[in-house]
Amino acid sequence: MNAIKQLFGGNTRQFGMIFALVALVVFFQIMTEGVTLTSGNLMNLLNGNAYILILAIGMVLVIIAGHIDLSVGSIAAFVGITVALAIRDWDLPWWAGVLLGLALGAVIGAWQGFWVAYIGIPAFIVTLAGMMLFRGLNQFVGKSNTIPVPEDFQYIGAGYLPEVGPVTGYNNLTLLLGLATVAFVVFMGVRGRSKAVRLGAVVPPLWVHTTKLVLISAAILYATYLFATGRPGTSLPIPGIILIGLVLIYGFISSRTVIGRHIYAVGGNRQAAELSGVRSKKVNFLVMMNMAILAGLAGMIFVGRSTASGPSDGMMWELDAIAAVFIGGAAVTGGVGTVVGSIIGGLVMAVLNNGLQLLGVGADATQIIKGLVLLAAVAFDVYNKSQGKPSITGMLSRGLLTKNKPQADAIEAAQEKIPTGA
Questions:
Q1: Which alpha helices (DSSP H) does 32-71 contain, by range?
Q2: Which of 333, 340, 359 is nearest to 266 (CA)?
Q3: CATH number of the CATH domain containing 346
Q4: What would the DSSP string read from start to end of 181-241?
Q5: pTM of this structure
Q6: Contacts of 242 (CB under 8 A, 6+ apart)
Q7: Which residues pair with 159 in a beta bridge?
Q8: Quick one: angle between helices 258-268 and 392-402, nearest 10?
Q9: Together in a domain, 228 and 247
Q10: 217-259 residue pLDDT tens
């Protein structure tokens, strides 16, 4: 069992989440008689959930910083309708529409970040007000109408990698991307282990490390095969490429940069972080602005996929994003969470929702099951902590701070200066 835990990261929570995801896939693959793991269904699953997973990336940073954002669905809807109107009425090219949407999201995020960071109003209240404000603006600007978008703009939400090169029976770009991803994973894995050995750190046995890389590579190659062998004209969806890029970027930011460590520090203990030199107001402002930008992007991807923007877009998106983050291991109190964990949590919800739809389960029962899954995941994490077993994200966040030892020592020293109960 210890070897299995090491194989999946060395802790119960990570093993549990990955096992749950694999078990769900296997269960629905059997129950749907092989429909779950088909090219068409995998593409539909990714296209239909990419915008929620993008929201989860931004939401996990907000929650790590100790806040919550209830306005993301309304912001996504407002940005979507505004961009659709601008493209129709101002004859903007699709790329200008995308830039307009991102800029509008930044302005909205700056507005909400100002109230949270510099005025001191709790994010729950600010974003609750934003949820109502931008939902109303969505209906006011669009006059409760459905606004279609041109085919060029639809590409960001419903497009696929094009066919290039010789005819092989596969999508060549998808194959190349999959092989490059495997090479990158293997390179980073070998490099990381070598670096750990040189530093004298404790590392798992070589066979565990090798088996882990083989399993990850096999999963990537199998997914690549499914995406590359779909019906003619399909391949890896463009929303999937955007999502992969964001996971890499935000995974790097949260684990390898100063601002990423500051987000964890502010969420873990704001007073201690400030005593160690962290500018908590700047951190809070940036995470709120970033969330709104990603909400705008998610809204545009959804509009592109649905070919039009409407008054009901964005309904309940914030709850799905929050559920994905908490299932992925984030703590309600802040300071704990990872981008990868939120994606895993989002995939658990996506596979569950997709599988229940394939089985013909009604929307009412689906909502009940999803609620129970969320409660069970959080209860499992709380139980582990009560037994003194750290969750995956707790271990990872501590690891992030120890990568910058002087800062970690400063924060620890600052915490000792804070009176009990502060």
A1: 39-64
A2: 333
A3: 1.10.3470
A4: HHHHHHHHHHHHHHHHHHTT-----HHHHHHHHHHHHHHHHHHHHHHHTSSTT--SBHHHH
A5: 0.87
A6: 50, 54, 156, 297, 301
A7: none
A8: 120
A9: no
A10: 999 999 999 999 988 888 999 999 999 999 999 999 998 899 9
